[in-house]
Design goal:
The chain has 3 helices and 3 strands, in the order H-E-E-E-H-H. With about 180 residues, the chain is mainly α. The protein starts with a helix and ends in a 12-residue tail after the last helix.
Amino acid sequence: MNPAFVFLVIAMSSRTIDKCRISPLNANMRYLTNAVNQFRMDTGRLPTTEEGVNALVVRPSGVQNWQIGGYLETTKVPKDSWGTPFGYLRDPNLPGGFGIYSCGLDGITISDGNDTDDINTWRTNDYYKVVGMPEATRDNHTSRVIVAIVLPMVGIVLWKGFGVARRRREQVPHEPQQSEQST
């Protein structure tokens, strides 16, 4: 099997795996965002950063009008696509005054959801959040992806094309040369 083809299949399948992790991750972050907004409507306040998304399933002390049974369909807060608990940050500078984030593949954040590989609700481009790419390098990444896909394909075409030309030359029968005979 052609190595360039194998490379292309592996590259495309890894991107599919990333997308398979992102769709449920984004759905869970929207689900938690909606639950936090419902919590705010009922109680008149947001959960604190310390209470986090656990305030959606366990009633914080001193909170009035907390919905009996919690704000989620289960008694457990969902985890991100890598099995790590979601982070929650209460910050008036964020949209809605709070944010929810995943620590991404490495499961670690040192900046409350702002590491390059963290996926959060205050950045909007899902694809680049998955690969942990800062905005400044997106164009550079796109060109590298194009080069990584196009160059092997050009190589295949050239390799196969030259092989066809060689086979054609080998298959053309040579006409015997007529020798000059004097009769």
